[in-house]
Each structure stands twice: as structure tokens, then as C-alpha cells.
Amino acid sequence: MASNTGTMANLPSGVGICTTIPDILYLPELVFGGLVWILVACTLVVPQNPQGWVMFVSVFCFVMTFIWMVVFACGSHHNKASWAAADFLYHGIAAFFYLSASVALAKVTLDLSGKQGNSTTTQLRNYKLDISAVVFSYVATLLYFVHTILSAIRWKSF
């Protein structure tokens, strides 16, 4: 039986997370997730329930991705295969959460588009911010999905 100790170097630490695939995706995930968080926070929250879910997902994923990145950067993962599986699991959950939040945000934004005929400047501004948030939310979803696929490949290589 072959030993898999030689493949444990697949999990980088330190600056290596900025140069390896899929770990290089941490920074764009943080940037686009942060933009979603900021843009939704800048708009009028109507209706509250879908917008609240979008805020929860964006804040949760931003904080958890930052913590996950710090764990890998500090080398706290000790190059174990279980960390590769956890990386795959976290990014899969984050991709699913972001997809559900993106759909909810797009629905709210589409509902607002029919009300733009007699809108004020503030309503138009909120609508444009919501459109930007939808675009960035789908970009974040794509980044998390790609990270999930690449993490699964890395996990299976152990």
C-alpha cells in the first residue's frame, strides 16, 4: 500500500496561500463578499427577510473566510487530510449559501424594477446599489463554487 505522506504538502501555509490554487481565491472572495455586504447595508432594507438573509450570508462568509485564511496562513492546520476535507466542506456550504442569497437578492431587485417609473432619487440610488450587489453576489458565488471544486480535487489527492 502506498503512503500518502508525500502529498501532505498540498496544504500551503504562510505566504504560500497567496500563490497556490485554490487558496489564491481567498482574497477575491473577501473582496466581492465585502462589496455585497457594503452595498446591501447601504440600501433601504425592504423587504427585510430576503435582505436579512443576504446580510447574514455576506457577513458570515466574510468572517469565516477571513478566519479560514488566517488559519491556513499561520500554519495551524498541520498539513492533515482532514483540513483539506474541511476546506472543501466549508467552501461548498458557502457556495450554497451565496447562491441562495443571490437568488433572493435578484428577486428583490426585480420586484423593485417595476416600481422605478415614478421613483425618487433615493429609490433610484437604492435600485442601482441593489443591481451592483446582485452582480457582486453572483461573482462571489462563482468564486466559492470554483474554490469548492478545486478543494475537492485537492482533498481527493490525499
Automatic annotation (TrEMBL):
Major location category of this protein: membrane
Gene: MAL
Stated name of the protein: MARVEL domain-containing protein
Membrane topology classification: Multi-pass membrane protein
One GO MF term: structural constituent of myelin sheath
Keywords recorded for this protein, A-Z: Membrane, Transmembrane, Transmembrane helix
The organism's place on the tree of life at top rank: Eukaryota
Organism in which the protein naturally occurs: Oreochromis aureus (Israeli tilapia)
Cited PANTHER family: MAL, T CELL DIFFERENTIATION PROTEIN A, MARVEL-CONTAINING POTENTIAL LIPID RAFT-ASSOCIATED PROTEIN
Lineage, uppermost ranks: Eukaryota, Metazoa, Chordata, Craniata, Vertebrata
